[in-house]
Design brief:
- This protein is of the alpha/beta class.
- The chain folds into 2 domains: 2-238, TIM Barrel; 248-314, Orthogonal Bundle (Non-ribosomal Peptide Synthetase Peptidyl Carrier Protein, Chain A), CATH 1.10.1200.
- The protein has 14 helices and 11 strands.
- The protein has helices at 23-31, 44-48, 52-57, 74-84, 100-103, 115-128, 148-157, 180-187, 203-213, 230-238, 248-266, 268-282, 289-298, 302-314, and strands at residues 2-3, 6-7, 12-14, 36-38, 42-43, 65-70, 90-95, 133-140, 162-169, 194-197, 217-220.
- It has an 8-stranded parallel barrel, surrounded by 7 helices. Strands 1-2 form a two-stranded antiparallel sheet.
- Helix 6 packs parallel to helix 7.
- 51% of the residues are buried.
């Protein structure tokens, strides 16, 4: 798949998820077959101020990565894009985050309520960066204001190289169902690549999403939490085959590798705390999962996490 001047190895993309899609998670998902991932949201304003934590969010580990910026001012996004392009293959503008602390500042999905400003922000990023600029959005602000086709068209006119659309509105947050009809309407409005996002938890979901929307790529978010091998399954399905099912041991070994990466990058104290949610997702469906999750939420050392995951294998 090609976006702008960049050729990707496939059309399987890991969604940007705040507090989840950090570098360790992205490394695991790329290992399982993702062709592109996004950083967690980076504040354009904070990046302009040289915030150290913001720079840490942009680490890519040499993987094909888009740096996602959120902003409400064209000037700040232009300054940030010029810096962010040194890190990633793309600059992505977030117009989809529903969190009140983001939308309350006129950022994230709030930009969809101001099409003129949305276009100016895309144009500012395109003018400041030599690498492709993409945009991620939702269906709209609420059911009465579904305007993703319009925003996507504005993004393309202002130089965006691709758009990703999540089929829920901001008011839905993560409830209800993603509306594929809106994504299809976007496909009919633009000529640049379209990435479809929403409710992909299996290879069958991915194939039907691509077929129903006409999108060129599929983006997986929550469906990869605790199941990063979903990319492996989708890749096989796209080739008309099926991926061998991972054994319980293989899954738990992958979970351990993931947790070890988190600790390596963030230190044991913080790393184990952040690894708890990932470990809990990995043991979902294991015999005795509820008890295992209780142990996970009390774990404070890497060694304890290893013991719990070994127990998860033995419980099978």
């Amino acid at each position: 798949m090609k976006i702008g001047t960049v050729e990707l190895k496939n059309n399987l993309i890991l969604a940007p998820m705040a507090g989840v899609a950090d570098l360790p998670f992205r490394i695991i998902c790329h290992k399982m077959g993702a062709g592109l991932s996004y950083t967690e949201m980076v504040s354009a304003k904070a990046l302009g101020f040289g915030n150290v934590k913001t720079h840490a969010l942009m680490e890519t580990g040499g993987l094909p990565t888009a740096v996602q910026l959120f902003a409400s001012e064209p000037e700040s996004v232009a300054r940030a894009a010029a810096q962010a392009e040194k890190m990633g293959l793309f600059i992505d503008i977030n117009m989809g985050c529903p969190a009140p602390k983001i939308t309350g500042n006129g950022e994230g999905c709030a930009l969809m309520r101001d099409p003129v400003l949305a276009g100016e922000i895309v144009a500012a990023a395109v003018g400041a960066a030599s690498k492709p600029v993409t945009v991620k959005m939702r269906a709209g602000w609420d059911m009465e204001h579904i305007n993703a086709p319009l925003i996507a068209e504005i993004a393309e006119k202002n130089g965006a190289a691709a758009v990703a659309v999540h089929g829920r509105t901001r008011s839905q947050f993560y409830s209800g169902q993603s509306d594929r009809r809106v994504i299809r309407a976007v496909r009919e409005r633009i000529s640049i690549p379209l990435i479809a996002n929403g409710d992909v938890r299996s290879a069958a979901d991915a194939l039907s999403l691509l077929e129903e929307t006409g999108a060129q790529a599929v983006m997986v978010g929550r469906g990869a939490q605790g199941r990063p091998w979903v990319f492996r399954e989708i890749s096989a399905a796209l080739e008309g085959t099926s991926a061998p099912e991972l054994s319980r041991r293989e899954k738990m070994e992958l979970a351990q590798e993931h947790i070890e990466l988190i600790v390596r990058f963030k230190g044991e104290r913080i790393g184990v705390l952040e690894a708890r949610k990932h470990a809990a997702w990995y043991v979902h469906g294991v015999n005795g999962a509820a008890a295992l999750r209780e142990e996970i939420n009390r774990a404070s050392t890497l060694e304890k996490m290893r013991e719990i995951l070994k127990k998860a294998i033995d419980e099978d």
